[in-house]
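Subgroup meeting minutes
Present: P.N., E.W., G.H.
Scribe: E.W.

1. P.N. recapped why we're keeping a running log of single-chain structure predictions: easier to compare across weeks, and new members can see raw inputs and outputs side by side.
2. G.H. added today's entry (338 aa).
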Amino acid sequence: MSEPLLRTEQLSRHFRVGKLFSRDVLHAVDDVNLTIGRGEIVALVGESGSGKSTIARLLARVYKPTGGEIYFEGVSVSRLRTRKQRLAYASDVPMVFQDPYSSINPAYRISHGIRRGLNLHRKDLARKQRGVEVERVLGAVGLVPPRAMSGKFPHELSGGQRQRVGFAQALAFRPKLIIADEPVSMLDVSIRIGVLNLMSELRQREGVSFLYITHDIAGARYIADRVLVMYAGHLVEEGPTEEVIRRPRHPYTQLLLSAVPDPRAPLGISDAADVGEPPKVVNPSEGCRFRFRCPLAVDVCQTVTPPMRQVGAGRFVACHVAEADAEEQAPRLAGVES
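Output recorded in log:
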């Protein structure tokens, strides 16, 4: 296989919490290994507090990792020392935020933010060319007519249009990977599909990869090639989207699917298993972090943290029970294939 566009190795981020001399440490992200291929849309799903946005900020270099490494096009991101190298990475891997006002200044016309990005990241463009590029990216994200739209203030746009401005700002950098952190969660249901379609169109037309972060597994099914499921700072399942949706291996993935009103979805775990929010991952003990909510937990789940292991073609899961089931099924599947 070719080198992925981006990959992480044992990526972790911890935060000290409490008073000045407190030894309490919140494990927001622990030992995450993920890959994103060229021209691929990967969805990272999980409920609030699972660590999804922390991963986004680690990949965007907003946070420094506590441990592990990020590789972009085979090069360690931690080795980007010069300002020029860091700006080049920021151009290649921009971020679209959940709240459009995180990247749009309401006091200026929407062209202002795009021009500022071009001034910083596209110094090869002359001033007149930057004006042309502003109109190009606005048209590319469906804000037409682009010249008229560029002169509008953010309050004159709808929520969906403001989110498209965020994508236009990212697209102006000529990116290779866009990190989209819950880009549709603040939008009306009726216009979410338009933003998801925009991501798909940009992938096809511009060749951009996406890390799509969401708590909505149905939205992930609509757009993503692969799904990564995250719980309490750990990745717990990974695989092709339809495979994960139709045959979820981890009990937490089954729990997420049980909340989706989809008559085609397989029967999942009982709602009785949903007994609360994710655990507070402050000074966590060893063992599966889902064990407190899992009806399938066995003794080993209390003391041994399950690693991600392959349980099928392109399928990975961090679950002692799922791994045991896969080992039992392997001989039967081999007999069928022979």
